[in-house]
Amino acid sequence: MNRVREYREKQGLSQFALSQKIGVARQTINLIENNKYNPSLNLCISLAKVLGTDLNGLFWEEEDGK
Question: Considering the entire predicted model, what is its pTM?
């Protein structure tokens, strides 16, 4: 589970706009959001920076199970 889509939408970014900011294909963003691709650590860090969060907030479940 990840919150890439949630954070991307909060930032008002399309998948394409986010992909351009981090230098990957739009399809990569789509695959990550749909849990069909496990991004590298460097890509995870780039996503977190652009989306204004940290790795814990973006990729790990909260304690209450959300």
Answer: 0.87
Cβ–Cβ under 8 Å, residues 44 and 58: yes
- State the chain's mean pLDDT as an integer: 92
- Provide CB contacts within 8 A for 2, sequence distance 6+: 32, 33, 35, 58, 59
On whether the CB atoms of residues 28 and 8 are closer than 8 A, the answer is: no
Q: Comparing C-alpha atoms, which of 18, 4, 14 is closest to residue 53?
A: 4
Residue whose token pair is 């996503």: 47
Nearest residue to 4 (alpha-carbon basis) of 65, 41, 52: 52
Sole residue written with tokens 């479940």: 61
